[in-house]
TrEMBL record:
This is Thiamin/hydroxymethyl pyrimidine-binding YkoF putative domain-containing protein. Gene3D superfamilies: 3.30.70.930. It comes from Georgenia subflava. It comes from the Bacteria. Pfam families: Ykof. Residues 21-108, 133-216 form the Thiamin/hydroxymethyl pyrimidine-binding YkoF putative domain. InterPro entries: MTH1187/YkoF-like, Thiamin/HMP-bd_put_YkoF.
Amino acid sequence: MSTKTDENTSIGATPEQFGIGMRFSIHPHTNDFVEVILGALADVETAGLTEGLVIETDEVSTYVGARTAPAEQHLTAYLCAVIVAASRRSRGAHIVTHVLFSRGCPGEVSCDLAVTGLPTPEPVELDPVGIRAAAQWSLYPLLDGGSDAGDHMGHIEAAIAAATQRGTAASPAHYATKLTGDLADVLATAVDAWVQVGTGVAHVVTHLSVSVGSPSPADA
C-alpha cells in the first residue's frame, strides 16, 4: 500500500480521486431471484439514479464508484432504490443485502493516505420508503498508524452514540450494532456515521447486512 503525495490528494480532490464508493450483493429469497435482481438494477437506471456513478457487476457483487459530489447522497439513494425495487418486484419477499462502503482509498493496488483537507459533506437526505429494515452494522476507521491510531474505539463509540440518539441503533451484537427502522433511515444512519468519522480519519470502511421482509419476528 503506497502513501505517495501528488496533486490528487490536494484540498478539493474529487470523489473519484479521493476514493468514495461501495460494493454490494443483493439476495432475494425467491425463486425468480434473477429477474428480481436484474429488474431492480434496470428500474434504478431508468429512474436516473446512476448519474455520476460508475457501476460494474460481476458474478459476486456490484461495485459502485462515485465520481461527482454529493458522492454519499448518490450512493445511498442508489442503494436504497435498488433494495426498494427488489422488494417491490419480489412482492415483499425476504431480501438480504450486504454492502461495504469505503472512503479515502481510490482502491486498486495502491492507496494514497496522504490526504489533506478531508471532505465534510452534508448529511444524507432520503424520504422514508415505508419498508422496515433491520441491519447489522460495523464501522472500521483504518487509522493506518496516524497520530490517534490507538483510538479507533473512540470513533466507533461516538458513531454508535449518534445512531442511538437518532433512534435507529437498537442493540449491540457480537462484532456489530443492530439498526432498525425505515430502510432509508437505516442506510442514512450508517452512511452519515461513516462520513463523520471520515472528516478526521483518511480511510474509513463501514459494512452492513440489511434485511427487509424477514420471516423472523422483529425484536426491536
